[in-house]
Amino acid sequence: MTDPRTTVVVITHNRRPELLRTLDRLAELPEQPEIVVTDNGSTDGTAAAVARRHPGVRLLTPGRNLGAVGRNLAVRHVRTPYVAFCDDDSWWAPGALAGAADLLDRHAALVAVTARIVVEPAGTEDPIVEELRDSPVPGPGWLPGPALGSFLAAATVLRTDAFRRAGGFHPRLWLGGEEELLAADLAAAGWWLTYAEHLTIHHQPSTVRDATRRRRDGIRNTLWFTWLRRPVRPALRRTLHLARTVPRDSASLRAFAEAAAALPWVLRERRVLPPEVEGRFRLLEDSQRRSKARCYTG
């Protein structure tokens, strides 16, 4: 059951064992997707190992860590109508890529399909799945699952052309909650995002991660998104909420300082969401505040 509709894009940085495991699993998929890997400046021999073990993978080596923009670089080489993202410590289940492509084929206004995330080796659901399943965002009757306000890049299949037209991931955000801005811009362009319960991606979290930096960047990116796209009053309300609730430590202080230092370009690029899209984000705020799964913004 080969399926030529979807290309898988993976970004990686100094996680050679995890990436090779992921590529092994992707190579076993019945869909036999094309795979593009952006090696974000690894120094652990990642590129050479991929070239030896998976010579059919298109390997991009920009020579530095581009963060999420490494996905933008990879998508330039995608020739299929759909692109599936996964991280170097996650992999799609057999049939999931074909299932997502079927949904996108069937619904012309659907831009993104996010799968159920199973955490390995225990095989348990990621806590975020409950929030996806119970999303408060209202959607049209034709939507095949719950409507989403954002998506998880490590577990989502998107329309390639729509991703490109929206500009991909913003280069300033680097990595950590970078999806929210892109999702909002896709919604503003008239697209819908959904969660698909019957599709699965596996995630075995790498131990090679800088959790403090990821949280710092996530707080900063949440502030930037808020200032870039939300109306003044909701933006002020969310900013004050973050200031009251994030951990009071150096990482949070630095996140707010970095966000504030960027106000000149934020104001230049500010573009408020249409009222109907802004309404979806207002509905999401309460559920995000109660979330136990979203660690970036406290």
TrEMBL record:
Domain of life of the organism encoding this protein = Bacteria
Q: Where is the Glycosyltransferase 2-like domain?
A: 7-129
Instruction: Please name the Pfam families in this protein's record.
Output: Glycos_transf_2
Q: Which UniProt keywords apply?
A: Glycosyltransferase, Transferase
SUPFAM superfamilies from the entry? Nucleotide-diphospho-sugar transferases
Record bears the keyword Glycosyltransferase: yes
What InterPro entries does its record include?
Glyco_trans_2-like, Glycosyltransf_2, Nucleotide-diphossugar_trans
* PANTHER family, alphabetized: GLYCOSYLTRANSFERASE, GLYCOSYLTRANSFERASE EPSE-RELATED
For this chain, the family text in UniProt reads:
Belongs to the glycosyltransferase 2 family.
**What name goes with this protein?**
Glycosyltransferase
